[in-house]
Amino acid sequence: MSGIFNKSGGYRKLHSFNLATIVHLGTMSFCKRFIEWKDDPLGKTVGQMVGTSRSGKQNIVEGSERARTSSETEMKLTDVAKGSLAELLGDLEDYLAVRGEVPWSIHSEQHKAVSSIRLEPFEYTDDVLHDYWVYLLREKKKFKPWLENDDAVVVANTLIVLIQRTLSLLGKQLQSLEATFIEKGGIRERMTQARLEKRDADVPQCPDCGKPMRKRRSGKGDFWGCSAYPECRNTRPLKKKKKKDEEDEEGEGKE
Description:
Layout: H1 15-34, H2 44-66, H3 71-97, H4 109-116, H5 128-140, H6 144-147, H7 152-184, H8 187-201, E1 213-218, E2 221-226, E3 235-237, H9 243-254
Antiparallel strand pairs: 1-2, 2-3
């Protein structure tokens, strides 16, 4: 492996993705159960809420997959996921507000109960799709008393708590991605570095300072000069190619 490409995929191991998926499934169920068509005749409220919940989930997927060739794209899509879920949070707050309700206090028993539930980590297997959804639906059941509650206010508040948790995780992911980018750079920088290392591996090293030498040209002909010039002025003659090698190169140029 060259080490140029970033690691990609693996998003199913992210708790942010798994929580976002539970939020998406919970949002679709919430809209179906509690937002009647007569209150949303054009479907805009439902469409927006389901759309933003889906965006939060799917942008984590795309960001993780695109990470292979672009750290910048991964960070942008992770931030889009964060923004989409924040938008959904606002819709749920509005849903409560028009009914004269307020979000649960972080000190309330309900908030503490939902916040205390932790997801088990997912381990990749040779049957990923099947085993992942067995895992995800099992984890989702932990929130069943709240997500499947008959009281819309309870369900809305539960989704709010889950979104807040997901936003916190996405914020930490962005900080981690930023730190990694600062330390290791992006793929363009690594590609340049790989080319330089390959080039330097094929040239002689300066006997004085150990830096790679570069081909130089003068009126007297070509020669090797130290890449650290002018700090190091060491030179060495450039070996002339054998006649057969020159003929082979000329033949290749004519093809």
